[in-house]
Amino acid sequence: MAFWNRWVSIRAEGGSRTDLIDRLQAHLKAGGLKSKITNESSSVKRIHVLKKDLDQAKALLDAFDKEH
């Protein structure tokens, strides 16, 4: 199965905010979710989760946003 058929992007950050993607990945991992980071360009990072975990990822993303 192709990468893009299983994974969905939940956030992208650029410039000085790309470190948020790394912190978000750690937050998702602590919540028990797998995630992947892709670099769209030299200054844009995007984080993806499995489609089947999207609802749980959204809840964790909301909690992450409240903290940061």
If you had to describe this structure to a student in words, what would you say it looks like?
The protein is an alpha+beta fold and 68 residues long. It has three helices and three strands. Strands 1-3-2 form a three-stranded antiparallel beta sheet. It starts with a helix and ends with a helix. The mean pLDDT is 92.
Ordered list of secondary-structure elements with their pairings:
Blueprint: H1 3-6, E1 7-14, H2 19-30, E2 35-41, E3 44-50, H3 54-67
Radius of gyration: 12 Å
Q: Output the strand order for the largest sheet.
A: 1-3-2
The main β sheet shows up as: 3 strands, antiparallel
**Helix coverage percent:** 40-55%
Tally of helical runs: 3
Class from secondary-structure proportions:
alpha+beta
The pLDDT mean sits at 92
Q: In percent terms, what proportion of residues is strand?
A: 25-35%
Uncertain segments: none
First-to-last CA distance: 35 Å
Helix and strand succession?
A: HEHEEH
Give the beta-strand count.
3
Shape: globular
Write a short abstract of this structure:
This protein has three helices and three strands, in the order αβαββα.
Keywords:
alpha+beta; 3-stranded antiparallel beta sheet; 3 helices; 3 strands
